[in-house]
Amino acid sequence: MTDMKQTVSDPVTKENFIQALKSLGITGNQILEVHTQMSAFGYVVGGARTIVDGLMELCADGGTILMPSQVSDNSEPADWEYPAIEPTLYKEVRNAIPAYDPNYSDVHYMGSVVENFRLREGVVTSNHPRYSYCAWGRYARLLCNHQSMHFPLADESPTARLYELKGYVLLIGCDFDSTTCMHLAEYRSDCRPIGIEGAKVQTPDGEVWRKYLNLQLDSDIFNKVGEIMKKKNMVRETMLGGCKITLFSAASAIDEAVRYFDKTMVYDLYR
Asked: pLDDT tens across 230-255, in order?
């Protein structure tokens, strides 16, 4: 019986990763909101570290890297689905959730690239206990300077600063429904109802559970917006190691999403 071994024929290295980004038109001085799914690659030599090293090396001379570092576990237990919590345990679980800490709160749901990136020297983090961002480079502090507790991805957020500074979105193995900044379109088009969320925060008096207002966000429709953008030639794509890499303007994506929502999902109640 023959032992069938898997052979790597196109390993991704830091050097060919940087070349792939350059082929999309990334010069190294742009602001990039980056989303990565490592499993989309066949094999990356050095794993997540190689991706972060490549991004930082390319953007070292005036560029900025921005990544969502959302803390999924610091949220209302009644809203959890994977796993769901028994209703009788909501209070107990809520009390047990540790307060948000930019250095120690678990962001493993965001992937290994975010986990690696946020530990790098010079990376700064925004202050929201659930919807935080981390950033490095020229405009990192400006992007993460202030994030409102209420409506955390609206106009007082890194998403809005990315829009104003004409940044870009870089999807590495991800589809458009991973694009966090596109949530800004939901706030600007009044297409979602308002809900109440919660998170544990650290205060001078100790850890406190704090409720805040937010829209009931839903990113599923972003893939439809992405298809519209492709038809309008607003998207650049390349392949590397079996992984699709996509680049587009954040402001163009947000504006296109607003137009789509205004045409198809108008809530007259909120107008």
From this structure: 999 999 999 999 999 999 999 999 99
Global pTM?
0.92
In whole angstroms, give the CA distance from residue 36 to residue 246: 11
From 176, 171, 183, select the one nearest 239 (Cα to Cα): 171
**Cα dihedral 45, 47, 53, 58 in deg (nearest 10):** 70
Torsion on CA atoms 221, 248, 20, 29, rounded to nearest 10: -140
Name the token pair of 7: 């052979």
Burial of residue 175, with CB atoms counted within 10 A of its CB: 0-12 exposed, 13-18 middle, 19 or more buried: middle
Contact 21, 54 (CB under 8 A): yes
**Is the model's pLDDT at 269 over the cut of 50?**
no
- Collapsed DSSP state (helix, strand, coil) of residue 246: strand
CB-CB contact of 242 with 166 (8 Å): no
- pLDDT digit string (tens) for 16-47? 999 999 999 999 999 999 999 999 999 999 99
